[in-house]
Amino acid sequence: MKKLSAQKSVVVLDIREPAEPAAKDGGGFAIPAWMDCTWRRIPCGKLTCPICGRMVRVRARHIARGEDPDDLAAVFADMGENFSETLRLLREDARQLGVDLEKEPDEPPLQTPEPDAFPLYGVVKNWQECLEMILAAGYSAGASWVITDVYADLSWYGNALLAKTYRQLCAAWEKKYAPTLFGEADFRYTRDVLAECCAILTRNLRELLPLSGDYFVPVSRLLSTLAFLRERLRSL
Questions:
Q1: Structure pTM?
Q2: What domain of life does the native source organism fall in (predicted)?
Protein backbone atom coordinates (compact mmCIF):
# COMPACT_ATOMS: atom_id res chain seq x y z
CA MET A 1 0.00 0.00 0.00
CA LYS A 2 1.56 3.27 -1.11
CA LYS A 3 2.04 6.05 1.43
CA LEU A 4 0.50 9.42 0.72
CA SER A 5 3.22 11.83 -0.33
CA ALA A 6 1.38 15.02 0.60
CA GLN A 7 -2.10 15.99 1.75
CA LYS A 8 -1.98 19.70 1.00
CA SER A 9 -3.76 21.46 -1.84
CA VAL A 10 -0.92 21.14 -4.32
CA VAL A 11 -1.00 20.09 -7.93
CA VAL A 12 0.90 16.82 -8.25
CA LEU A 13 2.91 16.52 -11.43
CA ASP A 14 1.77 12.98 -12.12
CA ILE A 15 3.66 11.10 -14.84
CA ARG A 16 0.60 9.02 -15.69
CA GLU A 17 -1.36 9.97 -18.75
CA PRO A 18 -4.72 11.43 -17.70
CA ALA A 19 -7.72 9.44 -18.84
CA GLU A 20 -9.47 10.76 -21.91
CA PRO A 21 -12.92 12.17 -21.18
CA ALA A 22 -15.58 9.66 -22.10
CA ALA A 23 -18.16 12.08 -23.48
CA LYS A 24 -16.87 13.31 -26.81
CA ASP A 25 -20.17 13.96 -28.48
CA GLY A 26 -23.86 14.51 -27.84
CA GLY A 27 -25.82 17.69 -28.24
CA GLY A 28 -23.07 19.20 -30.38
CA PHE A 29 -20.89 19.96 -27.34
CA ALA A 30 -17.74 17.94 -26.59
CA ILE A 31 -16.58 17.77 -22.98
CA PRO A 32 -13.13 19.44 -22.84
CA ALA A 33 -10.25 17.33 -21.53
CA TRP A 34 -9.54 19.76 -18.68
CA MET A 35 -12.89 18.88 -17.07
CA ASP A 36 -11.22 15.73 -15.68
CA CYS A 37 -9.04 17.97 -13.54
CA THR A 38 -12.08 19.49 -11.80
CA TRP A 39 -12.91 16.24 -10.00
CA ARG A 40 -9.83 13.99 -9.88
CA ARG A 41 -7.80 13.90 -6.66
CA ILE A 42 -4.63 13.92 -8.74
CA PRO A 43 -5.17 16.13 -11.81
CA CYS A 44 -2.98 16.05 -14.91
CA GLY A 45 -0.57 18.64 -13.47
CA LYS A 46 0.36 20.01 -16.89
CA LEU A 47 1.19 23.70 -17.11
CA THR A 48 -0.70 23.84 -20.40
CA CYS A 49 -3.90 22.68 -18.69
CA PRO A 50 -6.31 25.61 -18.06
CA ILE A 51 -7.07 24.25 -14.59
CA CYS A 52 -3.74 22.85 -13.36
CA GLY A 53 -1.61 25.54 -14.97
CA ARG A 54 -3.61 28.23 -13.24
CA MET A 55 -3.33 26.45 -9.87
CA VAL A 56 0.46 26.34 -10.21
CA ARG A 57 0.58 30.04 -11.05
CA VAL A 58 -1.70 30.95 -8.15
CA ARG A 59 0.46 29.01 -5.67
CA ALA A 60 3.58 30.68 -7.04
CA ARG A 61 1.93 34.07 -6.61
CA HIS A 62 1.14 33.37 -2.94
CA ILE A 63 4.68 32.16 -2.28
CA ALA A 64 6.18 35.22 -4.01
CA ARG A 65 4.11 37.43 -1.70
CA GLY A 66 5.32 35.54 1.35
CA GLU A 67 1.85 34.04 1.89
CA ASP A 68 1.00 30.48 2.85
CA PRO A 69 -0.83 29.02 -0.19
CA ASP A 70 -2.45 26.42 2.10
CA ASP A 71 -3.91 28.98 4.50
CA LEU A 72 -7.70 28.53 4.66
CA ALA A 73 -8.41 32.14 3.69
CA ALA A 74 -6.19 31.79 0.62
CA VAL A 75 -7.68 28.40 -0.28
CA PHE A 76 -11.27 29.70 -0.17
CA ALA A 77 -10.35 32.79 -2.17
CA ASP A 78 -8.63 30.63 -4.78
CA MET A 79 -11.66 28.32 -4.95
CA GLY A 80 -13.86 31.27 -5.87
CA GLU A 81 -11.43 32.37 -8.56
CA ASN A 82 -11.12 28.82 -9.91
CA PHE A 83 -14.90 28.51 -10.15
CA SER A 84 -15.12 31.78 -12.06
CA GLU A 85 -12.35 30.66 -14.40
CA THR A 86 -14.09 27.34 -15.04
CA LEU A 87 -17.28 29.17 -15.99
CA ARG A 88 -15.30 31.43 -18.31
CA LEU A 89 -13.73 28.44 -20.05
CA LEU A 90 -17.10 26.76 -20.49
CA ARG A 91 -18.59 29.92 -21.97
CA GLU A 92 -15.64 30.26 -24.34
CA ASP A 93 -16.01 26.66 -25.54
CA ALA A 94 -19.74 27.20 -26.01
CA ARG A 95 -19.19 30.38 -28.03
CA GLN A 96 -16.83 28.53 -30.37
CA LEU A 97 -19.67 26.09 -31.04
CA GLY A 98 -22.20 28.86 -31.56
CA VAL A 99 -24.04 28.13 -28.32
CA ASP A 100 -25.39 31.21 -26.52
CA LEU A 101 -25.32 30.47 -22.79
CA GLU A 102 -26.44 34.00 -21.94
CA LYS A 103 -29.67 33.89 -23.94
CA GLU A 104 -32.75 34.17 -21.77
CA PRO A 105 -35.20 31.26 -22.19
CA ASP A 106 -38.63 31.94 -23.64
CA GLU A 107 -40.17 30.69 -20.41
CA PRO A 108 -38.72 30.72 -16.88
CA PRO A 109 -36.96 27.36 -16.37
CA LEU A 110 -38.26 24.94 -13.79
CA GLN A 111 -36.23 24.71 -10.60
CA THR A 112 -34.38 21.44 -10.18
CA PRO A 113 -35.29 19.63 -6.94
CA GLU A 114 -33.18 19.88 -3.81
CA PRO A 115 -30.89 16.89 -3.08
CA ASP A 116 -33.16 15.40 -0.43
CA ALA A 117 -36.01 15.20 -2.95
CA PHE A 118 -34.20 12.29 -4.61
CA PRO A 119 -34.41 9.00 -2.62
CA LEU A 120 -31.27 7.66 -4.32
CA TYR A 121 -29.31 10.72 -3.17
CA GLY A 122 -30.30 9.88 0.40
CA VAL A 123 -28.97 6.34 0.01
CA VAL A 124 -25.64 7.58 -1.38
CA LYS A 125 -25.44 10.23 1.35
CA ASN A 126 -25.93 7.60 4.07
CA TRP A 127 -23.27 5.44 2.41
CA GLN A 128 -20.82 8.34 2.27
CA GLU A 129 -21.48 9.26 5.92
CA CYS A 130 -20.79 5.67 7.00
CA LEU A 131 -17.55 5.75 5.03
CA GLU A 132 -16.51 9.02 6.70
CA MET A 133 -17.24 7.55 10.14
CA ILE A 134 -14.90 4.63 9.44
CA LEU A 135 -12.21 6.97 8.11
CA ALA A 136 -12.58 9.23 11.16
CA ALA A 137 -12.34 6.25 13.51
CA GLY A 138 -9.17 5.08 11.79
CA TYR A 139 -7.69 8.56 12.01
CA SER A 140 -8.54 8.89 15.72
CA ALA A 141 -7.02 5.47 16.42
CA GLY A 142 -3.82 6.36 14.57
CA ALA A 143 -4.23 3.54 12.08
CA SER A 144 -1.29 3.15 9.70
CA TRP A 145 -3.51 3.29 6.60
CA VAL A 146 -4.58 6.90 7.24
CA ILE A 147 -1.29 8.12 5.71
CA THR A 148 -1.80 6.12 2.51
CA ASP A 149 -3.48 6.81 -0.79
CA VAL A 150 -6.28 4.46 0.29
CA TYR A 151 -7.43 6.92 2.95
CA ALA A 152 -7.03 9.92 0.64
CA ASP A 153 -8.86 8.26 -2.25
CA LEU A 154 -11.74 7.04 -0.09
CA SER A 155 -12.28 10.46 1.42
CA TRP A 156 -11.94 12.34 -1.87
CA TYR A 157 -13.95 10.07 -4.13
CA GLY A 158 -16.62 9.45 -1.49
CA ASN A 159 -17.40 13.16 -1.60
CA ALA A 160 -17.10 13.21 -5.39
CA LEU A 161 -19.57 10.32 -5.67
CA LEU A 162 -22.15 12.21 -3.62
CA ALA A 163 -21.75 15.45 -5.59
CA LYS A 164 -21.85 13.74 -8.98
CA THR A 165 -24.86 11.65 -7.94
CA TYR A 166 -26.86 14.82 -7.34
CA ARG A 167 -25.69 16.25 -10.65
CA GLN A 168 -26.78 13.13 -12.51
CA LEU A 169 -30.12 12.96 -10.73
CA CYS A 170 -30.75 16.59 -11.68
CA ALA A 171 -29.79 15.82 -15.29
CA ALA A 172 -32.18 12.86 -15.38
CA TRP A 173 -34.90 15.10 -13.96
CA GLU A 174 -34.14 17.80 -16.55
CA LYS A 175 -34.33 15.24 -19.35
CA LYS A 176 -37.86 14.35 -18.28
CA TYR A 177 -39.30 17.63 -17.02
CA ALA A 178 -37.13 20.44 -18.44
CA PRO A 179 -35.57 19.21 -21.72
CA THR A 180 -34.33 22.70 -22.64
CA LEU A 181 -31.94 22.49 -19.68
CA PHE A 182 -30.74 18.97 -20.43
CA GLY A 183 -27.25 18.41 -21.86
CA GLU A 184 -26.60 15.00 -23.40
CA ALA A 185 -22.79 15.28 -23.38
CA ASP A 186 -22.69 16.34 -19.72
CA PHE A 187 -25.08 13.50 -18.84
CA ARG A 188 -22.85 10.91 -20.54
CA TYR A 189 -19.70 12.38 -19.02
CA THR A 190 -21.15 12.40 -15.49
CA ARG A 191 -22.31 8.81 -15.94
CA ASP A 192 -18.74 7.76 -16.76
CA VAL A 193 -17.32 9.86 -13.90
CA LEU A 194 -19.68 8.08 -11.50
CA ALA A 195 -18.57 4.70 -12.85
CA GLU A 196 -14.91 5.63 -12.34
CA CYS A 197 -15.55 6.95 -8.82
CA CYS A 198 -17.26 3.65 -7.95
CA ALA A 199 -14.35 1.67 -9.41
CA ILE A 200 -11.78 3.68 -7.44
CA LEU A 201 -13.78 3.37 -4.22
CA THR A 202 -14.25 -0.38 -4.72
CA ARG A 203 -10.54 -0.93 -5.31
CA ASN A 204 -9.55 1.03 -2.20
CA LEU A 205 -12.18 -0.56 0.04
CA ARG A 206 -10.84 -3.97 -0.97
CA GLU A 207 -7.33 -2.83 -0.01
CA LEU A 208 -8.66 -1.53 3.29
CA LEU A 209 -10.61 -4.69 4.14
CA PRO A 210 -7.71 -6.80 5.53
CA LEU A 211 -6.52 -3.81 7.58
CA SER A 212 -9.90 -2.73 8.94
CA GLY A 213 -9.80 -4.73 12.19
CA ASP A 214 -13.01 -4.16 14.17
CA TYR A 215 -14.51 -2.45 11.13
CA PHE A 216 -14.23 -5.48 8.87
CA VAL A 217 -18.01 -6.03 8.78
CA PRO A 218 -18.91 -2.34 8.15
CA VAL A 219 -16.32 -2.12 5.36
CA SER A 220 -17.70 -5.33 3.83
CA ARG A 221 -21.18 -3.80 3.91
CA LEU A 222 -19.89 -0.64 2.26
CA LEU A 223 -18.50 -2.78 -0.56
CA SER A 224 -21.72 -4.70 -1.13
CA THR A 225 -23.84 -1.54 -0.99
CA LEU A 226 -21.50 0.21 -3.41
CA ALA A 227 -21.97 -2.61 -5.92
CA PHE A 228 -25.73 -1.99 -5.77
CA LEU A 229 -25.28 1.78 -6.06
CA ARG A 230 -23.00 1.40 -9.06
CA GLU A 231 -25.66 -0.52 -10.98
CA ARG A 232 -28.40 1.87 -9.88
CA LEU A 233 -26.43 4.94 -10.99
CA ARG A 234 -25.59 3.30 -14.30
CA SER A 235 -29.29 2.82 -14.99
CA LEU A 236 -30.15 6.53 -14.68
A1: 0.75
A2: Bacteria
Tens-digit pLDDT profile for residues 130-183: 999 999 999 999 999 999 999 999 999 999 999 999 999 999 999 999 998 888
**C-alpha to C-alpha distance for 138 and 177, rounded to whole angstroms:** 44
Burial class of residue 131 (count of CB atoms within 10 Å of its CB; 0-12, 13-18, 19+): buried
pLDDT, position 9 = 35
Torsion-angle region of 24 (φ positive above 0: left; ψ -120 to 50: alpha; else: beta): alpha
Judge whether 164 and 39 are in contact, CB under 8 Å.
yes
In one-letter notation, the amino acid at residue 169 is L
